[in-house]
Amino acid sequence: MNKYKSLHKWMIIPMVFMQLGIFRDYWGDFSDNAWSVHIHYWTGTVWYIYLIIQPYFATHGQIARHRTNGIIGMFIAGGVCLTALSMLHRDIVTTERALATPEQFGPFQPWFFFGVAAVEIVMMTAFAYAVIKSILHRKQLENHSWWLISTVFIIMMPALGRGIQNVYVDMHSKDWPNINIMIPIYPTQALIIGMLLLGAWKYRKFKHPATYLALGVNLFILLLEPIGKSENVQLLLKALIKG
Fold first, then answer.
1. For residues 181 and 184, what is the distance between their CA atoms, to the nearest angstrom?
2. Nearest alpha carbon to residue 158 among 150, 146, 166
3. From the CB of residue 217, how many other CB atoms can be counted at a distance below 10 Å?
4. Please, are residues 202 and 59 in contact by the beta-carbon 8 Å criterion?
5. Domain of residue 107, residue span
6. For 159-212, how does the pLDDT look when each residue is reduced to its tens digit (9 = 90+)?
7. Were 179 and a residue from 52, 70, 105, 107 both cysteine, which residue would form a disulfide, CB within 3.0 to 4.6 Å?
8. How many structural domains compose the chain?
9. pLDDT at residue 87, rounded to an integer
10. pTM here?
C-alpha cells in the first residue's frame, strides 16, 4: 500500500493537462455549448477528480470511504462513456456542415470529423473495458489501481489535443486555410504516451495489459487521417450513427 501513498499527487498532473487543453474550447464559448457537451465535460472532470481522491482514501486509512466512493465512481465512469458516445452524432452532423460550407471550416475538412468519430469509438470502448477490468480485479490492488489509472491516458487526447491544436492554428492563422491540422496531433500523442510510460516506469507496470491497451489506443489515434479519409469508414459511421 505504501507504494501508492503519493499516487494522488501524481494524478493531479494529467488532470491539469486535461483542464488546460479543454479550457478554451469549453469555457471560451460556455453559454453556446450544447447540453450534452456540459454533461460530458463535467462527468469527465469528476472522473479525473475521483482518480485523485480515491488513491488518497485507499492509502490514508479511509477504506470504507474509498469503497463507497468507488460505487459512485463506477456510475460516473458510465456517464463519461455514454455521454461521449451520445455526442458522436454531432461529429457526423459537423462533417455535413464542413462539406456544405468549407470556407467556414477551413482546414477542418469532413474527413477530420469522421476520423475523430472513429477514434472516439475506439477510445470509449477501451475506457469501458478498462473500467470493467478494474471492477473484476477490485480485490487485487495492483491490477485494480492500474486499470483505473490507465483510463486517464486512454481518454485524454480529445481535451489535450484540442488545446494544442488551437494553439497551433493560432500560430499559423496567416496561412488559413492551408494549415495541416494533423501536425499538432503528433506532439499531443507523444506527450500522452510519455506520461503513460513515466507512470508505468514509476509503478513498474510496463508489461501490464492496461499499459498495452492505453499505448495501443494512443498509437491508433495517429491513424486518424487515413481512417477519416476511408470511404468505407465514412459509410459505416453514417450508417451506424443516426440522429
1. 6
2. 166
3. 25
4. no
5. 2-240
6. 999 999 999 999 998 999 899 999 999 999 999 999 999 999 999 999 999 999
7. 107
8. 1
9. 87
10. 0.93
